User: Which sequence fits this backbone?
DNA sequence: TAGTGGTCTAGACCACCTC
DNA sequence: AGGTGGTCTAGACCACTAC
């Protein structure tokens, strides 16, 4: 006989009921004291079970309100089209994508000079701690924190293209501005990873326990030189990345009925 | 004054010490009762703090042994080279990659006929519940569970290429076998997402709390037909995916000193 | 004010590992 | 045997939300 601990039985029973649709996304679970009666367990034991489901990302809780089944709506980002080398888009790809999806984008933006961390220095091929220009975006969709994006430029490039280090927006887009300055991005290297958020990331993206982040690092090259390194941190529950490679049939919105 | 709850103070203090290197990766934390004395908190409160760090993926615990700082070694998978259309590799790309990294790959393998789930049916463009061939791999590196890979083929293709549904390995590789049968993959569509593992996935990949999974879905096309859908589930703490797009300078191992 | 979850305690017993 | 974490309880008080 393989007896499970009681808190796990609670978690399993509730998970099954959520999967079955007994508690649809957005609905509320019974209160801790009700569950405590139902499972003949102390409140603390029930809490352990609920906690497990929170860590799985299945439910969330808020003080005074109760436990709610999480709803998952995903936003797709086409990374191979995002910055297409042959068909560059006009303006900001993020705003366009979000607006096209019928949502309202907003962002805060800042520029600063900052010493390169090991991770960034490695990719930009500059010395650890050497100066870089950081252009940082904190992005929202319908006022929900969605992602952060930090782009680092090496010092030598900022000297060649001084507007990079100026606080304002670059209206025509940085890629286009750099191209006009004779720096044309010929290719990029993408790295994708996942992990649980740091406390800082939890704060910026407003995620609780049970939601991982999706980390996307794009290193851009012009000839043999690295011209930038962009680190995007997504809420894992709200985002998905796509790549199209080779020849594909047309998929003109037929996937979104 | 912004007083934090005690269990969070415990978590923050320990996280800081881990970040500082006071407890390097692989080392053990003091026992719960020692921490209980140090922080003047009950054992349960200390446990809450430790639990938070477990959920962040920073530490892990095992009965009778204590808490250990997790070490992170990542395995990189180059998804744009993985199945290069112009320079196909010989044999199994996974085994080659792992062996090249000086590690020992192993896997279990099975083939079955199974009705298409909504997710798979959507991608294969077949009816929900219609028959598909599933070729499933459970992969290990040095006997550590690493990833699972499930490839679904539509029924019509299995009729055209009958060895797909046979239980054994396909020595020359399925891509090559299909090409010989006149089915040449011309392109693919990749989707990448992350979430916390389901209980099934936790079991197969042997991950505890605080480790998300990285989900990679590759849908392969030949002309306008979908010929397969491969769903790979990685342990998020051990894997990273890469894409090379456009022209890049040679990076012949110079990144791995 | 009543009900919800959030924090904390003190103590008990069990399961696992090392010696 | 002695130390570690894992489970569970009963009860207390606090903070937030709703009405």
Assistant:
């Amino acid at each position: 006989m393989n007896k499970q601990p009681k808190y796990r039985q609670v978690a399993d029973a509730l998970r099954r009921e959520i999967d079955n649709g007994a508690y649809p996304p957005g609905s509320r679970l019974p209160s801790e004291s009700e569950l405590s009666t139902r499972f003949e367990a102390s409140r603390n034991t029930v809490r352990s079970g609920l906690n497990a489901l929170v860590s799985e990302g299945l439910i969330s809780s808020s003080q005074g309100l109760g436990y709610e089944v999480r709803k998952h709506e995903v936003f797709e980002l086409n990374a191979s089209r995002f910055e297409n080398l042959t068909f560059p888009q006009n303006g900001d790809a993020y705003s366009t994508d979000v607006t096209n999806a019928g949502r309202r984008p907003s962002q805060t933006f800042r520029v600063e000079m900052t010493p390169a961390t090991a991770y960034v220095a490695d990719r930009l091929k500059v010395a650890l701690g050497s100066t870089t220009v950081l252009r940082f975006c904190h992005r929202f969709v319908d006022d929900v924190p969605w992602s952060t994006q930090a782009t680092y430029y090496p010092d030598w490039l900022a000297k060649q293209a001084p507007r990079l280090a100026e606080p304002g927006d670059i209206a025509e887009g940085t890629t286009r501005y750099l191209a006009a300055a004779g720096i044309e991005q010929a290719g990029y290297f993408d790295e994708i990873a996942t992990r649980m958020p740091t406390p800082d990331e939890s704060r910026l993206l407003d995620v609780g326990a049970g939601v991982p982040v999706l980390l996307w690092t794009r290193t851009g090259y012009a000839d043999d030189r690295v011209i930038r390194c962009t680190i995007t941190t997504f809420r894992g529950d709200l985002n998905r990345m796509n790549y199209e490679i080779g020849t594909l049939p047309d998929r003109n919105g037929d996937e979104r009925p």
Notes: Confidence is low (pLDDT under 50) at residues 85-90, 252-257 of chain B.
